Amino acid sequence: RLKNCLREEDTFCRHSGDEFTLMTYCSADGLDASAVATKILEAIRFPFVVDESELFMTASIGIALFPKDSSDDLGLMQKAENAMHQSKKNGRDCYCYFSREFSQQAEETLHLTTLLHKALERQELQLYYQPQVDLENRRIVAAEALLRWHNDELGWVSPEQMIPIAEESGLILPIGQWVLEQTAKQIRSHYEIKREWLPIAVNISVKQFIKDDFVTCVMAIIERHDIPAACLELELTESLMLSDVDLAINKMGELHALGVSLALDDFGTGYTSLAYLKRFPVDKVKLDRAFVTDIHHSKSDAALAKSLVAFTREMEFELIAEGIEEEIQGEYLKAMGFRYGQGYLYSRPLPEEEFAKLFSTDVLTA
Ligand code: C2E
Ligand code: MG
Ligand code: MG
Predict the structure, then answer these.
(1) Tens digits of per-residue pLDDT, 16-50?
(2) For strand 284-287 and strand 261-267, is the pairing parallel, antiparallel, or unpaired?
(3) Whole-prediction pTM
(4) Which residue owns the Cα nearest ligand 1 atom 41?
(5) Does the Cβ of 205 fall within 6 Å of ligand 1?
(6) C-alpha angle with apex 135: 132 to 140, nearest 5 degrees?
């Protein structure tokens, strides 16, 4: 079948599984290679009959052109393989041409991954803490730990850039463990200074949560630092609840049994409806910043916030709004029945010492 698709000048290889590469000459518009790749995809898609069974397969094809992409054989093979990875990323059963942009992106990701590997041992990671306040009197009632990475070569790398890389590379496991450990240490240290327990929330990635030993790890940390379990709050996202519902509910139950408190982060941005939320044993819901920004203008955002207030009251969940930047947003939310808030209006996330200083004064002034 493949031979029928190929021309004299084409070199076509199978690497493994559904991974194929096509190396050929540059035509004026590059279209010839597309035509060949399309023919191959169709030929492979047609079922194969083996021992009276029909077998189905698809191909992810990467195309590199001579001499445009490379003028030597090894270079051309590398470029075609690189393009094949792009096809897989695009959902398989398709072809892609080599693209310098994608290749550069992949190289950058690889470089970041290498540096992130060393970040823990080089002590480049830090936790910042952002207060959560009572909207009535601006007293600090809790905080959220947020990861910060400073690297000499890269400067500050935002969590948005770092977390996906940490997740893809598996580094989120040691990093997540470090975040939990540091937070527990911080909870204890606040208590030593002020003789008052301040709950701190930690963001938990799905990869961490689904590990078999997650609950045991959390329990060990609480015991090691001798802190009340209720002071450690775990922020979970909806994606976690959508992946394996039964597993999520069971694990949340086990965490609850430890006494740990559970918050649903970024509420409103995913697919979770209020009815769906009823099934999950959470203690707190965090309304996402996307609904807070325009709360005083947008009827639909206000409607969602209002129904959330009614629902959380009925369910006895706590409710907090994220990303409050302006006085008017805080006032609006308070009038709607929100008790707690978090955002730049009250304080940005702060390094450990600055946060401890702020906590000792207790109340945030405007
Ligand atoms: P998140 O958990 O929803 O955290 C809130 C984000 O909003 C933080 O961004 C915070 O700095 C920012 N923020 C707070 N108040 C305001 C405000 O008034 N206005 C605006 N514009 N932004 C505000 P950050 O620190 O960049 O973190 C981004 C996300 O990265 C977090 O969203 C969380 O999903 C993730 N993340 C951060 N630290 C960790 C971590 O230790 N582990 C994991 N798995 N994820 C983390
Ligand atoms: Mg969070
Ligand atoms: Mg959030």
Answers:
(1) 999 999 999 987 766 789 999 999 999 999 999 99
(2) parallel
(3) 0.84
(4) 147
(5) yes
(6) 35
